[in-house]
């Protein structure tokens, strides 16, 4: 019994950081400083075909490309499971919330039905006047023939795994494992208390 209790306690110590991280995530979701940098924009598809879009941002003086830090809703401000590959039928639109702190919204990567990539330029000079919200909050994707073929660095960003979804899965798994260990640990303590009480009654 003592060995099992020690093992469970050690397991809870290992998985405890997942619970702590979840609590910090919830606290940050209602942080006024977080809300200050949240903004939204709308993208409408008028290309004449179904497409998938991924908003791209530019960071740093060297102009590193990456997906925008997208959020589900502004309150609570929780990072979205997905940050790209949004499917838009023709004439369909989508509203996206993102955190513009430390990133300039610079391009929208567009994937056509045949798998080819194009890019819609949002900010032609993303390294200037860093960092700021988008100058426009409404973007219309035109006929794809009018767009430029996506640069390799843009395609590379789009094809990277969506890490936030992976983080959420790992976080959820850690919390579930911690909860199961905690329940087993609690059962042992209750059983030990019951046994101690029973022994005391017998002695009386």
Q: How would you describe this protein?
A:
Helix 1 (2-29) packs across helix 4. With 204 residues, the protein is α+β, with helices and mostly antiparallel strands. Strands 2, 3, 5, 7, 8 and 10 form a six-stranded antiparallel β-sheet that branches. A hairpin with a 5-residue loop joins strand 7 and strand 8. The mean pLDDT is 84. Helix content is 40%, strand content 25%. The protein has helices at residues 2-29, 32-35, 152-159, 163-203, and strands at residues 38-45, 51-59, 64-67, 70-71, 86-88, 93-99, 104-111, 117-121, 138-141, 148-149. It is built from four helices and ten strands; from the N terminus they run H-H-E-E-E-E-E-E-E-E-E-E-H-H.
- Got a strand count? 10
Secondary-structure element order, as H and E? Answer: HHEEEEEEEEEEHH
Task: Quote the beta fraction.
Answer: 25-35%
Question: Averaging pLDDT over every residue, what do you get?
Answer: 84
Structural class: alpha+beta
Shape: elongated
Radius of gyration equals 25 Å
How many helices?
4
What is the CA-CA span between the terminal residues?
Answer: 26 Å
Uncertain runs: none
Q: Specify the biggest β-sheet.
A: 6 strands, antiparallel
Helix content: 25-40%
List the helices and strands and how they pair.
Blueprint lengths: L1 H28 L2 H4 L2 E8 L5 E9 L4 E4 L2 E2 L14 E3 L4 E7 L4 E8 L5 E5 L16 E4 L6 E2 L2 H8 L3 H41 L1
Parallel strand pairs: 1-9
Antiparallel strand pairs: 1-6, 2-3, 2-5, 2-7, 4-6, 7-8, 8-10
Helix pairs in contact: 1-4
């Amino acid at each position: 019994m003592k060995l099992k209790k020690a093992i469970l306690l050690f397991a809870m110590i290992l998985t405890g950081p997942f619970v702590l991280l979840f609590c910090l995530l919830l606290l940050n979701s209602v942080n006024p400083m977080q809300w200050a940098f949240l903004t939204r924009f709308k993208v409408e598809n008028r290309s004449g075909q179904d497409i998938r879009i991924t908003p791209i941002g530019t960071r740093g003086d060297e102009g590193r490309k990456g997906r925008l830090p997208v959020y589900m809703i502004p309150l609570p401000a929780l990072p979205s499971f997905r940050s790209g590959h949004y499917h838009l039928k023709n004439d369909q639109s989508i509203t996206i919330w993102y955190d513009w702190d430390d990133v300039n919204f610079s391009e929208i990567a567009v994937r056509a039905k045949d798998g080819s990539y194009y890019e819609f330029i949002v900010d032609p000079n993303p390294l200037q006047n860093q960092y700021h919200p988008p100058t426009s909050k409404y973007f219309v994707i035109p006929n794809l023939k009018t767009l430029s073929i996506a640069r390799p660095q843009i395609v590379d960003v789009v094809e990277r795994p969506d890490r936030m979804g992976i983080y959420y899965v790992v976080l959820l798994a850690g919390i579930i494992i911690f909860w199961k260990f905690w329940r087993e640990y609690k059962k042992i303590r209750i059983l030990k208390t019951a046994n101690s009480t029973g022994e005391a009654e017998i002695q009386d």
